[in-house]
Amino acid sequence: SSSALKTFQQLREKYPLGNKVSASLFAEAMALKKMGKTREAQERLRRVAKIYPGSPEAQRVDIELRLLGSE
Prior knowledge:
- The chain is an all-alpha fold and about 70 residues long.
- It has helices at about 1-15, 20-35, 40-50, 55-65.
- The chain is about 75% helix and about 0% strand.
- The chain is flat, with a radius of gyration of 11 Å.
């Protein structure tokens, strides 16, 4: 939902160096996916992989991108 997106964005803005930023960005991508905003979800997923390549969330990016029809 849009309120979930806002919460995830606020979390990243408030704690840009926090250890949960990659999880927040991934969760934002999943919320966008549920809202049918595929392109935006793909963009967030790519950011997770690029900025946080060693994170547990980055390991899930390829699968999610395939599910969204992108590589």
